[in-house]
Amino acid sequence: MEKTNNAVEKAEKATRPSGGASKTHKKGGGAQKKKSAAKTMSAKDRKKMAVAEEQKRQREQLRQEKREKKERAQAERARAQAEKRVELARLKAHRKAEKEKAKATALRERNRRIAEHKAQAQQLKAERLAKREMLRNETKKEREQRKREERAAVLAERRNAREQRQRNQQRNKDKNRGYGGWLAAVITLGVATLALASALTFTFLMPTETDGMLEATYQKSFYDTVDQVDNIDLNLSKALATSDTGALQKYLVDTAINSELAENDLQQLPLQDESKFYTTKLINQIGDYAKYLNNKIIMGEELTKSDMDGLKQLYKANAELKDALQKTVSEMGADYSFSSLMEGGEGNIVISDFNQLQNLSVQYPELIYDGPFSDGQNEREIKGLDGAEITDNDALNIFTEIFIDYNLTDVKNVGVTSSGVECYNVQGENDGELLYAQISKKGGKLIMFDFAGSCKEVICSSDTAIEKAEEFLSGLGIEDMKAVWINLANNVYTVNLAYEKDDVIMYPDLIKVRVCAETSKVIGIEAKSYFTNHVEREIAKASLTEDQALEKVSSELEVETARLAIVPIGNSSEKLCYEFSGTLDGATYYVYIDAMTGRQIEMFKVIESTEGTLLM
Length: 616
Prior knowledge:
Elements: H1 2-14, H2 17-39, H3 43-136, H4 140-178, H5 191-202, H6 212-241, H7 245-267, H8 273-298, H9 305-332, H10 349-356, H11 392-402, E1 409-417, E2 423-430, E3 433-440, E4 446-451, H12 462-475, E5 481-489, E6 492-501, E7 504-516, E8 522-526, H13 528-533, H14 546-550, E9 558-569, E10 573-584, E11 587-594, E12 600-609, E13 612-615
Parallel strand pairs: 7-9
Antiparallel strand pairs: 1-2, 2-3, 3-4, 4-8, 5-6, 6-7, 7-8, 9-10, 10-11, 11-12, 12-13
Helix pairs in contact: 3-7, 6-7, 6-9, 7-8, 8-9, 8-10
């Protein structure tokens, strides 16, 4: 047993602290070796480690830049797709309106020819009866005298026809000699331009109310308006219910399209402006606000609670419009005649209901944002008017002096206008045709005028129209104006002129001048935009060169011209841009690139229509 215990004791000693101390010593020795190795690491090794860390950081930075570039490309594709959808909808609406207009025009022409033929037939019948009665009692001497007079009349008619042909031939020679071609330039679409485009697209001679086609056109326009308001309601409700940014953009774009189509249909109804003013304003404001929010998303901005509150307010206002239109539909009855809208009167159910819709204007707060239909636009400062206030008698004298060559009679004051620019309204007559003008109370400037004289044919060239427009403005003391766009429609040239300084076009300072293509006389002017915006600006130096800005334009576009221009952004700001014009697939485009950031600010496409050349 003792031997056994001794053996156990020997085994226990072998596992006691001495063995543990040995292990600890070995472990401590390894740490010391590592420290020693770190101390003895060469500078070259440390440099390698630093280079490796820098390479790793650069790789991570490149990956981040690629991710950001991909996100920007996705945002740009989304914006381009949204713009394409809006443009396609606009073109579709425009073609639809043109088709309906052509149908109505063809029917009017057919009815006119039928009525004219009937009248001629009745006249010929009456003349035959009268001649038969005359011949029955005619003497031989009277018969010979009548035949001489008839032969003389035939000869005179032939002579007049020959002289007219000679005059027309000479006139065509003169016209071809002086025609200077089309001025390739562009105007930026603000509120006044959008209003002009609507007028150019939808203004036409009203057919008689007995036209069956006209009744059908009015009926279709009304019910299409109702449908589009329903679509706006649906898309706005979805926009408020979704949390997905991509889906929200789709609903906003669809809302903008529905708005434009509704406004298109509404303008074709023969309602007085005061009856449809508030309805049109609401529809336009909804569409414009939807575009504004969509652009914020495209630019990578987050929509605020205030943004969504504004959308919710417009949704509620549109819901009231929708209910009001449904009520009107239920009250009209199956035998309602839409042609009766031309007669006016409070007894007409549709007119009465539209007049009641003006109450919508006080049921949602004003929305002030960057857009042509913003409520804030009426509060804009009038920058281009100075001088003392004039009296109504002063306005008469200024009117008479400006239009001294128009041979006007019965010149008189006919009230005042307080919207935007405060003006005296003055009018005069020339051979039964009315000339109406507005003279600003401050400074006594001609803000607008319109002469009702008709222009029956095109005699003067576009170059002559531009020259006459520039002469007229110079006579008003408005200098340094450059023609940037000209359009011919209904034998009238509309010349758009913008202020130019240091070879930079100032599109906010725009004046539209109408020139009769038959007489070369100025028959209208719209200068409100000019007097609202015109100031002497300090033009900033562009951060980008023209070549750098050109790189931002699609390589598919064959660029032909380039220049610097100041363009309006909404109603509150302006930007210095490069304006590039070019062609793609036979169509002309104008692209505006921010001269500071390189972002595309706007793009327009030239559209040829029956009403001339338009920008969309």
